[in-house]
Each structure stands twice: as structure tokens, then as C-alpha cells.
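re the bet — no i am not wrong, look at it urself. input seq straight from the record:
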Amino acid sequence: MGSTLVQVTRDMDYDDDWGHLHIHLKKGNRHLDGVQTVGYLRWRKNNNGRGSSDDFSRTERQRAVMASIKEKLHRWDGIRRLPKMLAAFRKNGGKTNLTTAQMLFLAWNTRKPLLTDSVPGEAQTIGGVSYVVCDWEAGRERWQKALK
């Protein structure tokens, strides 16, 4: 399962020695290894008019990566390699209180469609602090619709 296929929508070039974050990705369809995927998910410099630390775009990228991993996991080679992947997760510092059997059960049961959504909102600066002001009523309506 060594890589995740994603659509990188812009060149990403960023170094943060203090935070040990180095992102160097070119625009286009890319197979990313684990370190590159983390960088892709942590990227904050979209400069797309929604703020320099655009959490909306980061959320979209996170959803795309989850969908890519889910699709890959449910091919036969992904299911067969799942125990090895879980061992690597633990070896590399991944922590959970779930047992291996519980994680296998959850992974197998993600064969159903992956539903993702966000509460609608907009970025605002209030008192010099950035917030996302949510429309909770619209969020409740989306939740009700998704449960049907």
C-alpha cells in the first residue's frame, strides 16, 4: 500500500525546520508516500482568497486522502496487507485503544460509502482572531438528510 494517489492542485513548496515540515510537491496526479501525504494534509498556504491558512481546503484534501486510502484498502491486496499496515502504524508511534481485531473489523466495514460533510460556515476575523462562524441550522439539516 506504499502510496496514496491524490490530485495536487498547485505546486507546494514549503520548509519549516523548527516544525520538521518539508513539503515539495508538484501540481498534478501524484502517488505520495506517507511523509509526503502528511505534508500534503498539513499544507496551509493556499492564498486563494479564503485566508492564508485555509482550513476549508485542508479539510477537502483530508477527505480526498481518506477516499483514496479507503478505495485502495478494499482491493484484495489492501485487505491482505492490512495486518502489516496496522503493525507499521503501531511501530511508527500510532496510538489507539482499539485492538487489532477491532481495527480490522472497522476497516472491513468501511466498504459502505464514506459520507463526509462539514457544517457550513465562513471565515471571519473577530477581535483580531480568526474564526469559522458556522451555520448550525444548515448543519443540522445536512445531518438529517444524510441519515435518511
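see?? The longest strand covers residues 121-126. told u. also The helical segments are 34-42, 55-73, 76-91, 100-108, 136-147. so pay up
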